[in-house]
Each structure stands twice: as C-alpha cells, then as structure tokens.
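Table 4 source record.
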Amino acid sequence: MTKRVISAIIALLIFIPIILKGGWLFNFVSYLIALIGLKEFIDAKSKKKEVPFLITLLAYIFLSLIILVDVTSSSTLFSLDYRVLAALFIAFLLPVVLYHDQKKYSVTDAFYIIGGLLFLGISMALLIMLRYIDLKIFVFLFTITITTDIFAYLTGMLIGKHKLLTEISPNKTWEGLIGGTIMGVFVSVMFYHTCIDLNVSLWLLISICIFLSLLGQFGDLVFSAIKRYFGVKDFGNIMPGHGGILDRLDSIIFVVLGFVFFINIL
C-alpha cells in the first residue's frame, strides 16, 4: 500500500507540470506513453505467442502515424487519412500469407495488432486533442477517473462483499462500483459546475458523469479481461504497486472515448 501511494505521488509530481505546460512537451510525453502502452500490449500477447520483429516494428511506425497526424488540431472531429488506414490493413494482413505459418503469424494475430493500434492510437490522439482544446475539460475527465478509481478501491476494501465479475477481476465488488460511481460523479459534477460552466443543466451533467464513471470502471474490466486471457497479472512494472502504463490508463482511455459523444453538448 505504501509503495502504491509513493508511486502515485511521484507520478503526480512529474505529470502535473507537464499537463499544465501543455504544448509540444505534453504531446511528446503522450506520444512516449503511447509507445510504452503499445509495447505492453504486444508483450502481453507474447506471453502466449511471440510477435515477429517486423510486425512489432510496423506497429510502432503506424502508431506514430495515427497519433502524430494533426496533433494541434482544435477540431472535435478526429480525422485519419484513408491512405494510412489502407496501408495499416495491407501491412498487417499481407504478412499472414508471406509468413505462411500460423504458428508464427496468423489472421487472429493481425487483427489483434490492428485493433490495438486503432484503439490505443485514436484514444491517445483524442487525449492530446482535448488538452489542446481546453485544460479544464482535460482535468474534468481525469477528476472523474481518479476519484472513481480511488473510492471504488476504498469502498470495495472496506465494505465490499458482493463480487462483480470474479472470472475477470476477483477483487472488484458491486459495493466498490457503486461507491466509486457516487463519489466520482459528485466530485466531477462539483468541479465542472464550479470551474467550467455554472449554467449547464445539472441533470444533464449528472447523467453524463454517471455514464463516464461507469464506462471508466468497465474499461478497467476490459483491460483485466485482456490480462486474464494472456495470463499476466499486470501489463508492466513501470510504476511499483500500480503495474504498467496500460494498468493506469485503462479507465481514462474509455472515459475519453466516451466523452467524444458529449463534447458538443457540455
């Protein structure tokens, strides 16, 4: 527990100034985090089946293309060149025939990599875009995620009795889910209403925050399911007591993806 708290404090001391600064520094750090996340994503798969070096190299190249295209755009519409998408499918599906050995590289492997690239690339590109558009909105989304995560953990530890999904995450409880949602919604609504927009419809804001809080928690479960499938406890060990980059970003990735549906409403 002490190690977990110390790691969290160190991470906050490092990343808060970077988030406040924004600009090229934030973009560059986000890009590096995305690369580490992709490495963890591929390493998890390698526990069952090694990913060929060429495929890994291509994955890093295409993740860079997805994230670095139009990183300073203030548009709320994420755009990706069709040529990049076409090249993505060709680059990862064609080797299925060239390797001609399913033990080395199969169609399933190809679509795992393609899906992971689009999933991680688009979510990190959206994260960069949101910071570029409005720091307060960026902080609002992290407020939902962090508050929900902390109080889900505390509530589950203190009064959690009814297991949520034991096959995926044995420690998650319904009490934790409810407690995390209540506090996540309360704190994020107060932040938005106080710091961003006093005139927003309170019921609309509460409804959106409930959706995002729940989405973040189920996003955590999605990543837990991936780890369970590949037989790994954590995606990495970059943060002692917390695991890897994907172990920390699992909820915020889904919250960011969910927020795009409401970006023109709030």
